[in-house]
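request received
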Amino acid sequence: MFKKMLHQIRGLLLSSISFAVSPKLVTYARNPPNSSTLEVGDSEGNGYDSHCLSWRLAVEANNVRGWRTVPARCQQYVERYMTGGQYERDTELVVDEILSYVDRIVLPGDGMDAWVLDVDDTCISNVTYYKGKRYGCDPFEGAGFRAWAGKGECPAIPGVLRLYKKLIGCGFKVILITGRDKERLGQVTILNLHDQGFSGYQQLIMRTPEHKGQNAVAYKSNVRRQIVEGGYRIRGNVGDQWSDLQGEHVGDRTFKIPNPMYYVS
Amino acid sequence: MFKKMLHQIRGLLLSSISFAVSPKLVTYARNPPNSSTLEVGDSEGNGYDSHCLSWRLAVEANNVRGWRTVPARCQQYVERYMTGGQYERDTELVVDEILSYVDRIVLPGDGMDAWVLDVDDTCISNVTYYKGKRYGCDPFEGAGFRAWAGKGECPAIPGVLRLYKKLIGCGFKVILITGRDKERLGQVTILNLHDQGFSGYQQLIMRTPEHKGQNAVAYKSNVRRQIVEGGYRIRGNVGDQWSDLQGEHVGDRTFKIPNPMYYVS
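response:
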């Protein structure tokens, strides 16, 4: 019996150790079980992340604008969000919602139904680059980003690639609009997109000297105006920045892909 | 020494019990530590909530629209969100953001700077009512809501009351716009707001027969047009529904207060 008791005690000790090595214990250590912070943790995540979750929510709801960097205390949070699975889940749910909207559209068949997609962190991902910028805790730096983009190694965002293929298959004229500079990044962007499965689009519109000095909303609005003046109907518009989705001729419906790493005005 | 050892074992046993009664253990029970679901749980919350977190995020980002009820699987999630602390945290962060915007506004002092606030689940809370509607898993039902609102017992949302007092103190003309029916709920709404500390506003605008048949965007746009035609500048606009913040004359800047319980078109 004593042996059995020892065995049980050993079991309890081991289970305590398994708690001790679990990341959850960090939460307990910082937030004792009776604290209200832990209650937050219970419903929404590790207690010490609840502020960063609020911040991320406010970014996605366009309540927090014009931020230059991710708050320093949220670096680890954003890293786990982007790499731990929740970013993919959030994106997949948005894509499912877009696809159910697409399924309700009846195309008249004149070939003038357009769909606008942003490129960076909408079609293809820069998470690898932003890892080196502490997931957005370091400010944007143009030359470094261009060096990264110049490699042409941005991977497709799987959910958006799935959407893209559906749109092409349905007969939408997909128009990609990016703030990337045509002269410096035109060729590599075309190749990167092609390598990742984004082929068959109607047009890839990039920044040229004529767009110089325009912020994202103005540039993208101008481009969309030309699309509409060309006789197209913009049935949908998807981007990771609110500046992709605001201004003029935004489209019949807009969808925001999550991005807590940077903000483009 | 044996006594000390027994004491340590007792401590371990007690800490195991405290884990056993903690809601966290439910997560472990449903999601073994090695499952990918738990990884999501580690970064964003209980593993089995990660879909509902994605849904809530998509609601706040205006990606999911026109929904009639909260998904059944998210009832417990929304309950915990609304009552466990994260809703308050999310709201407080938005209010802090609004206040930092307010602090940057220079009022010309002509008394024509207006601020628009929605009422239900912006200034005062209906969470108690929605508890009886399974936190939004049951569809909206007008008579029941009017009976609840008719009691005049909606509590202030603390963060928004804090904002309200700041706005009044700064000299903004605060205009409350609500979809509540003036004839049936006018008097009790005025009293409820007053009891909860919302006094000194410029105007409370409610639905009258002239707004019949208008959806929220049309009704609120019409009302705001009259405000602007009256010479006011709408410097800010806060609501828990995207329909509060869209349409015409939305104001210089809009802010979305979280609400995963219902959707108003």
